[in-house]
Design a protein that fits this description.
two-stranded parallel sheet, 8 strands, single chain, 3 helices, alpha/beta, Rossmann fold, six-stranded mixed sheet
Length: 147
Amino acid sequence: MRFYSFDEFVGDTQFLARNIKQEFDPEVILAIARGGMSLGHSLSVALNNRNLFSLNSIHYEDTNKLDSIKIFNIPDLHDYKKVLLVDDIIDSGETISEIKKLLLEKFPHLDLKIASIFYKSKALLIPEFKVKEALEWVDFFWDIKID
């Protein structure tokens, strides 16, 4: 298991923000709850973009992958074109692929790009903006548990 610290997150978010601003400059940042919320918020601040929205997806229960992917609370994106979809990690790529497919079905006019801190090279989809390849389970500093 790999612990991902706040200090690493700050540097990685700055790296992502610079690349995103230079190459895409989105109108909307769409964070996938829950994992993408911390990165979505931080990118929103770094890019000075107040159009921060979220949607929900459930594909894991703790560390167990579920049989189905639930996607809900999708915001209305009719008035936007450039949307950055944000998550903390692209593991198998199944969830992000389903979300992308659903969003493009509902809003076919979107120019949709994906940003993630971690990704796995064998994922179904590799994000356009990424920082690190995940070679083991990542324990994020924001994953706070109580006993």
